[in-house]
Specification:
mainly beta; Jelly Rolls; five-stranded antiparallel beta sheet; 1 helix; 41% strand
Length: 349
């Protein structure tokens, strides 16, 4: 707040953090204070994306950390924005984009069975890391056929931070080293589910620590052959001794799962937690035991090694947004061609 006193008159301009400039004019012996406000738009209950039709200008929102719309002129330019690329030579731009998109391209990651091509990935190290919560929203188009194994965009942390993915499949994190969270559809469950690694995860029936499934609902599906808006949120445990971390998933803007300390109820069977009101409360996530471990990477991938020789298929991605608050899906209707201007106003006293 800026307070100006002149001839017994007190004038205030608020909020101080939004004041771009204060102009003092002398008029009839009085001080006229003009506050020009420049305020970033607030995200509504519909999320940040509701403020930016077609995601045009969404990278300018203060909560947004990273945006990828796959509108680069070349794949080389695209790859330069990511930290690690696997099998980039098979990737291509596609003209198939989601409804409401302002762009012309999506990313196509194909695969071929029999070990010819298992897919590929884009990995992004986030620096600085995030110590509270992180939202990742993306569009994905699952094909109508194929045995895709790991898909979507995973999020997590390494300590120390790494410039490449190191998932250590089947191995339980210690607590100070790593964690990961995914919202994916795969050929193990044939439904969209969590696939999470953390220090208190449950062991699978084969004695290995594969990612835990935490929804186990056959009704939750990403429709094959259609663009699906997937968003998930990870909230870190604070303090590091607590199990108050969370993981939530939205599918086409509808929250389909949210787990944290004491919710929801369900039942464990090996590494699978089936949500059930008649079960026991979920114990929560202790994602980390060391404050140096935070949210510091995202991993876009199509890993599909299980199809027979001669099989070919592809998977498409678009409109990736990483932010510190809820993002939401692309608004329906035609997008604007220019980003919305930040609101301005005048307060005259």
């Amino acid at each position: 707040m800026v307070v100006i006193r002149k001839k017994g008159i007190t004038m205030r301009c608020t909020p101080a953090s939004a004041i771009r400039r204060v102009v003092l004019l002398r008029t009839l012996g009085l001080v006229l204070t003009v506050c020009v406000l420049h305020v970033a738009p607030d995200a509504s209950a519909d999320g940040i994306a509701a403020l930016y039709p077609g995601d045009v200008g969404i990278e300018n929102h203060p909560d947004v950390i990273f945006v990828e719309k796959f509108e680069e002129a070349t794949l080389t330019e695209l790859f330069n924005r990511w930290t690690d690329i696997l099998n980039g030579s098979v990737m291509s731009f596609s003209s198939d984009v989601p409804a409401g998109s302002s762009g012309r391209h999506s990313l196509n990651i194909p695969w071929a069975g029999g070990g010819v091509n298992d897919g590929g990935h884009l990995y992004k190290r986030l620096s600085p890391g995030v110590d509270d919560r992180l939202y990742v929203r993306y569009y994905i188009k699952y094909p109508a056929s194929g045995r895709y194994h790991h898909t979507g965009i995973w999020v997590g942390g390494y300590n120390p931070p790494l410039s490449w993915p190191n998932p250590q499949a089947g191995v339980k994190p210690v607590g100070h080293d790593r964690f990961s969270a995914a919202a994916e559809q795969n050929n193990v469950t044939y439904r969209l589910d969590h696939y999470d690694y953390w220090m208190d995860m449950r062991v699978s029936r084969d004695g290995r620590y594969w990612g835990n499934f935490l929804l186990d609902d056959p009704a939750v599906q990403a429709k094959a052959g259609q663009w699906t808006c997937v968003e998930h949120m990870v909230r870190l445990n604070n303090p590091i001794s607590a199990s108050n971390g969370e993981h939530a998933i939205w599918l086409d803007g509808v929250k389909v799962s949210h787990l944290g300390h004491g919710f929801p109820n369900g039942r464990w069977s090996g590494g699978i937690f089936t949500q059930d009101p008649s079960g026991s409360p979920f114990e929560g996530f202790r994602w980390r035991s060391d404050s140096s471990l935070n949210l510091n990477w995202i991993w876009l991938q199509n890993y599909s090694p299980d199809d027979p020789p001669g099989f070919k298929q592809d998977m498409k991605f678009d409109h990736v947004v990483v932010a510190k608050s809820y993002i939401g899906c692309l608004p329906s209707g035609s997008p604007d061609t220019a980003p919305p201007a930040a609101p301005t106003g005048l307060i005259v006293k």
